[in-house]
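G., the chain you wanted modeled:
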Amino acid sequence: MAVISLSRIIAHWAAILPDRVALAHEGQGVSWIEFEQRTNRLARAYQALGVKPGDFVTIALPNGTEFFEACFAVWKAGATPQPISARLPKIERDQIVEIGAPSLVVGVQPGEYPQSACIPEQFVPDVSLSDAPLPEMTAESFKAMTSGGSTGRPKLIVSKTPAAVDPDLPMLEIVTGGTMLIPGPLYHNGPFLWAMQALFRGCTVVVTTRFDAEETLRLIEAHKVDVVYTVPTMMRRIWALPEETRSRYDLSSLRALWHLAAPCPAWLKECFIGWLGAEVIWELYGGTEGQGSTIIRGTEWLAHRGSVGRPVETCEMKIVGEDGETLPPGEVGEVFMRPHTGQGTTYRYIGAEAKAIEGGWESLGDMGWMDAEGYLYLTDRLSDMIIVGGANIYPAEVEAAIDAYPGVRSSAVIGLPDEDMGARLHAIIDRPEGPASDADMLAHLSGRLVRYKVPKSFEYVAEAVRDDAGKVRRKALREARLAPAP
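Predicted structure as tokens:
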């Protein structure tokens, strides 16, 4: 099939499957024809508010059908959706709106951003607006995701993939007209991408407001889900359910359980392979920037235990030593990747500069090694980024919020092991006048950081945590707190 503009993809499926459910959320369903008509009217409302082709539209909506309708209305207006957490503190949202300069912010009160039109959650377009198809328009970029920056300020990662798709192109084990379950937050790149790729292929997408382990199993059975998106924290919580609870649900419809966004312990992966079958378990390693990725199926993993797979056909990877040399198989170094189309062809940043070594190779900040067959094995993180429950957190962003507390001279945020979330945030704070109460610090941070970025524990120290150059040795701080007591 030919490539179809995302401004036309709903109409394509509405003509084929008009009454089939396209979106399901908390027991409510939206058919393809309803989806088409509602997004046509909404796109016209967005255009009346000033959205033009090539614009960004910031979408601060929780998981639900309204989120999807907003994204597709944006595509129908020829613009690019730029999702953020609906619970993002205003100070952080302000920074994103400043760098993205959207023509519309969805999910905030009117007037909150004088430079942009603003509409609240549950916005309803004027009923006089037509729900007939709009002229076809295709945005140059189909998504602009947000990432915390290593400097403490957010950045936008703007995809260079146009807002168009070939619905017949195989992708992520998605069956045309199948059913996808998304129990993760849609403003994150993984859930967003999996959900949208499923819709592009005529699937029913079942989305939850938030993750619940048993509810995930119930929804798989009830909707006969064939593909589900997870992160290892979700898998841990599902596995922690009593065995009689897990075995209560019929999961035989599943053809692919994807896990990504964070390292998965080998023991947990083996448990899922034993439970659901090796052919069902799939893993992907990569970044929002899309420079490269690896994929591995459970059957392949059993023969290469611990690997995250081989590079996909669109990219290449290599392991680089401390002196910049390419390392041979079996030696640990930093993992670098680049697309075959060249560095910078898959994304561009707003609010940051891309970093690459000679030849256009880029790194996600991971250490690892490759075997003689080209399978990649990750060993540790080189960068400061901490992964908590599948979410990427840059310490500088959290430290900037802590340092704004009265009396704090400096701070360092590290990740400590956590069985459930993979890591938990621990803050080491240099405050000469002594500790602040946890309640006061938490109240201060809650106005500046989204909840998952707030440290779980605070430690106050008398000595400086940074050297005269402002540098912090996070690895040493972390190792000191993991060392056994003498």
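The mean pLDDT is 93.

Shout if anything looks off.
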